[in-house]
């Protein structure tokens, strides 16, 4: 039975959870007919998207991302929001186990009817995960969710992919820190609109204060990304629910300031264009690799390049010629 065929835009727009979950499954499918159905569905609901605040949350493993999202989500829901949490976790492909997506995470939120939690699609490349997460985000918006959190683990390049699909990028850090800022690359710090030092409680409180001061110093040396917002450093305890309401207030302030200046809609337009180019390059590469004449030439040319008998640039030209010629 083809369950996927039964999803209608009307079901999705009415906020039907099962329809939403199934629509996301359709998006994650590798079958060409599923992809086409997903595209049609997306086209139809696209006018109803874009009415949420999109927040990306990243941080090193163990920083308290899921604890934070539970606490933050509670505040947002209390303020009347409908929250969807999506994950970008390419680690499952590399390690065979997922850093983010086990079922016990965010157990409280997952029981609330105002929240929808979707773990990361497994076994895909980062590009694949990011593409599907972007589409899932739009589906969640169409289904009426007005706060979308995209979570990722602070290793590798997934933060950049997430920052490219959200309005606000929030980086969670641990107390302590020091010079290397917990393995968080400088480029990632530069993407952050809010840096939140978590675990600012009990014995860890003084270290959290020091970490916040270190980060504030580091941020002062960086070029701000936006005219209407300078990155802020906050402290909280997700576990004890201290300072979370303030983080929520500042996230709201960000949305207000960036909306009023026009930078938020401008950022979304830039992101949509960048997305088009990602789609184009991914699709082109897939089409090229699937081309029979190219596949043959590729095997041969790869060997020659490896053996140093032909330069990569000239091999690439020959592959393109085979592609365009056939
Ligand atoms: P994640 O891997 O980033 O999702 O981190 P988790 O949310 O699973 O938290 C990792 C550990 O840190 C757990 O044992 C949490 O109970 C603990 N933790 C999370 N937030 C806080 C906090 O605000 N204070 C303290 N002391 N511990 C916390």
Automatic annotation (TrEMBL):
Pfam families: MeaB. Transmembrane segments: none annotated. Signal peptide: none annotated. GO terms for molecular function: GTP binding; GTPase activity. GO terms for cellular component: cytoplasm. Coiled coil: none annotated. Residues 51-223 form the AAA+ ATPase domain. Belongs to the SIMIBI class G3E GTPase family. ArgK/MeaB subfamily. This is Methylmalonyl-CoA mutase metallochaperone MeaB. It comes from Dongia mobilis.
